[in-house]
Amino acid sequence: MRLSKLFLPITKDLPSDATIKSHQLMLRTGMIKQSAAGIYSWLPLGFKVMKKIEQIVREEQNKIGAQELLMPTIQSAEIWKESGRYDDYGEEMLRIKDRQGREILYGPTNEELITDIFRSSIKSYKSLPQILYHIQWKFRDEIRPRFGVMRCREFYMKDAYSFDVDDESAKLSYNKMFYAYLKTFKRLGLEAIPMAADTGPIGGDLSHEFVILAETGESKIFADKSILKIKLDKYNEDKSSLEKMRNEFSEIYAVTDEKFSKKEFDKKVKKDNQMITKGIEVGHIFYFSDKYSKPLNCFVDTKDGKKTSIKMGSYGIGVSRLVAAIIEAKFLNNKMKWPKSVSPFDVVIIPNFNKNNTENLKKAEKVYEELKKQNIDALLDDTDESMSSKFTKHELIGIPNQIIIGSKSTSDKFEYKNDKDVSSIISLEEIKSKLI
Amino acid sequence: MRLSKLFLPITKDLPSDATIKSHQLMLRTGMIKQSAAGIYSWLPLGFKVMKKIEQIVREEQNKIGAQELLMPTIQSAEIWKESGRYDDYGEEMLRIKDRQGREILYGPTNEELITDIFRSSIKSYKSLPQILYHIQWKFRDEIRPRFGVMRCREFYMKDAYSFDVDDESAKLSYNKMFYAYLKTFKRLGLEAIPMAADTGPIGGDLSHEFVILAETGESKIFADKSILKIKLDKYNEDKSSLEKMRNEFSEIYAVTDEKFSKKEFDKKVKKDNQMITKGIEVGHIFYFSDKYSKPLNCFVDTKDGKKTSIKMGSYGIGVSRLVAAIIEAKFLNNKMKWPKSVSPFDVVIIPNFNKNNTENLKKAEKVYEELKKQNIDALLDDTDESMSSKFTKHELIGIPNQIIIGSKSTSDKFEYKNDKDVSSIISLEEIKSKLI
């Protein structure tokens, strides 16, 4: 893509409510545009990042055998009355009356709807276990939406739901998801810590939240550093392996401020290993057994001919929120660096040229065409700004690799800056091999 | 995927309102499940087909240089009041009040919102032309939702919007989209006819609808057969080529019943070439110049320093509707055949086995694993039903290629049935080469 053609409305005027760096950066680089309070349009740059995150989330869900479907955004109030949550949910639920006067709502979550789908379809233990998920927009009518897409009203989430015949099998599903989450965040270039959590309005008796480390995060975190060193690679999807993994994580101290006790911290964690930092919640998993299946009459026949309520868990990842969370974690010293796996482009080509001398632009165009042939998604900065203003701009856009075509480049070698800001003068072939 | 694991709730009990074949088939094969009046969940089989359609639509939009973004489902009423359509739109618009009492709505279309995004970003003719699109859920509160996903309330659409400095350039954008639409429908395995259309509530002075041929379609079509023989390959994206293409289509008679005149039909079309059939509208494109940009103050500076209103067009494809439309076109003699490009699986493996003899199942599993290695997306029917009931089921599911492992197969050759129902006994290598 040529930058001159890209719909990228870079802006310098920030609204006064843009107080955190992800909100500011997303507005400045034209990733999003607010269209109403807590409601955003995703412009091409932001959209590309979000789609890449979505795809990684999807792939890791598929790997553990979860199946994708899609529930609608608008739900009938009926099933919420059946579960008893219609009155409980409060004003965050966007309640609507349609033209026939029927009560409907914009789904803030999907436990009821997925249970309704499941109860009418699955009758026997033979069809279990199952994990179903979808990636869909949700709405919560926050009284004070803020922090851009971090706490907005319309947001994009992956919700998964597991269905098992008994608690033991349900725990395996839970552990699989736990594992998939850690792998997902790793692929997103994030350091995520799973923390035992309260279950809140979802209910149930087992829950973890996944918090990524970011200096500007909303929750304070107290943890033993060694939790970041657990090697995920040594585990696999086998039941016993997953149990060992869960145990390894559980044994290491890591809590948010709600559960913090200085005494316990000092007792359990050596001074050198004590980490006090901040984090952002990007995922939350729950096991709530038959909290929804019972009131909603979701039963299966067991092996010995009896009926049992299905044991369920639910598992969320905030996809749109992750875009902001990654910025909070990766925007340092006024410079953004997208992890390669979610960068909007693989590389940016920055030629030094002006109206009177477009030689470097021509070189850049050749490089651009060559990369295109290899399916390398390059952004060509063909604007006639000065190099210094281009560099400043790209420090915000945050594409991790740069090809700079200026005084340091020769006829067949170019300056290449990698994601660690290490510069080298190398041939196009070498650059390609680094990018593929 | 193993069929025993696939979440595919096949049902025989059809609701009385399922009167058309696509609605019936989608319910019977567990592609969708109704969750409220005119609101559906997309189960894994239906979801896969819809996603494949979406991806083809996306690729053809990208090929003409359109850029993808994503607007939210919930919009503020304000911009609709600015354009003057808030009162005009009537009860199909789902109007909502949020907890603060602000008027919001579930977007039935996006002309206002995209104009709002554009006006605040683009100030100069230099940034034009642009085509932006998104693929998003919309809601229209139909008084009588019916025909399954064909006329439902929450539906998935691709909307594109073009922005040009003058009418001539805008016409080129229109023609590009016209071309992209024909290519899209061709890739979907459909015969689509573009027809000059009225502009309706969107407004404007140039409009085409794209109708695909299906015996059970809602609109009656009168056309010269030769319109189906126009070769798209001879055209390209150049301005003059696109104009020639538009002319070739315009010169051939093709109208819906609204515009039909028997006299004209007989005069313009030779008896042998007269085609009277039915069709389903799957796309609609509009050029409405500055109908929205003027009231919404969307202006750019021109080359000679003046201001001009941006000339806009809008271009829709019903993505969720296409799933049903393809069924209406391809479900014949009680048999479904998905076009390869959108089939939920590339091939289905059907072994003949029972509890006492699972030899063929084992063979099938080997074949399945081999295909998986080649990234061929196979469905393995590992259920213990009889072969005749399996065949009946797969005639509905509609995967166009089958590998049948039964009496006709030898140790290293298998019965392979292609999408034309032609059967041959060939090796796995030969099968692979046909599927890749």
Account of the protein in words:
Two copies of one chain form a homodimer. In chain A, 31% of the residues lie in helices and 27% in strands. Chain A is of the alpha+beta class and 436 residues long. The first copy, chain A, has two domains: 21-330, Bira Bifunctional Protein, Domain 2 (BirA Bifunctional Protein, domain 2, 2-Layer Sandwich), CATH 3.30.930.10; 345-435, Anticodon-binding domain (Rossmann fold), CATH 3.40.50. In chain A, strands 3, 7, 8, 9, 10, 11, 12, 13 and 16 form a nine-stranded mixed beta sheet that branches. In chain A, strand 19 and strand 20 (413-417) form a beta hairpin. The longest helix of chain A is centred in the middle third of the chain and has 21 residues, at 167-187. Chain A is globular, with a radius of gyration of 24 Å. The mean pLDDT of chain A is 94. At the A-B interface, strand 1, strand 2, helix 2, strand 3 and strand 4 of A face strand 1, strand 2, helix 2, strand 3 and strand 4 of B.
First CA to last CA of chain A: what distance? Answer: 18 Å
Average pLDDT figure of chain A? 94
Largest interface: A-B, 53 and 52 residues
Structural class by helix and strand composition of chain A? alpha+beta
Radius of gyration of chain A: 24 Å
Strand tally of chain A, please?
21
Number of helices of chain A: 12
Which CATH architecture of the largest domain in chain A would you pick?
2-Layer Sandwich
Count of domain modules of chain A: 2
Cα shape of chain A: globular
